[in-house]
Amino acid sequence: MGQVVVTLNGRTYRLECNEGEEAHLAELAEYVGAHVDEMRRKFGQVGDDRLILMASLFVTDELWALRADVDNLRAQLAEARRDKSESDQNARSVETQLYAKIGEAAARLEGLNARLGQRAGGGR
C-alpha cells in the first residue's frame, strides 16, 4: 500500500493509496492545495474545514463545467457522425445515378456505333 503526505492550509495529512498511484495523488493534493491557498488569500483564515470545503466546491464546479463541455462535444460528435452518414448516403446515391447515366450513355454509343457500322457496311 502506498502512502502520500500532503499539507493543506499548514496541516499535514497522511493518505494511503494503491502502489504506483502516489505521484498522481500528490498531484491532486497539490491542485486542491493551490485552491485552498487561493481561498485563504481571498477570505482569510476562516478555518481548515471551511477552506477545504470552499476549494472542493471550486474544483467540483470546474469538474461540472468540464462534464458539460464533454457532453456538448459528444453531442457534436454524434451530430457530425449523423451528417457523415447522410453525406455517405448521398454520395452513394449520386454514384448510383452516375453509373446509371454512364450505362445509358454507353448503350447510346453502342447503338450509334451499330447504326454507323450498318451504314458503312451497307454502302460497299
From TrEMBL:
Keyword RNA-binding assigned: no
Record localization: Cytoplasm
Alphabetical list of InterPro entries matching this protein: Cell_div_ZapA-like, Cell_div_ZapA-like_sf, Cell_div_ZapA_N
SUPFAM superfamilies according to UniProt: Cell division protein ZapA-like (SSF102829)
Main location: cytoplasm
Keyword Nucleus: no
Alphabetized UniProt keyword annotations: Cell cycle, Cell division, Coiled coil, Cytoplasm, Septation
Gene Ontology biological process terms, A to Z: division septum assembly; FtsZ-dependent cytokinesis; septin ring assembly
Pfam families the record matches: ZapA
GO cellular component, one term: cell septum
Subunit record text: Homodimer. Interacts with FtsZ.
Function: Activator of cell division through the inhibition of FtsZ GTPase activity, therefore promoting FtsZ assembly into bundles of protofilaments necessary for the formation of the division Z ring. It is recruited early at mid-cell but it is not essential for cell division.
Protein name in the entry: Cell division protein ZapA
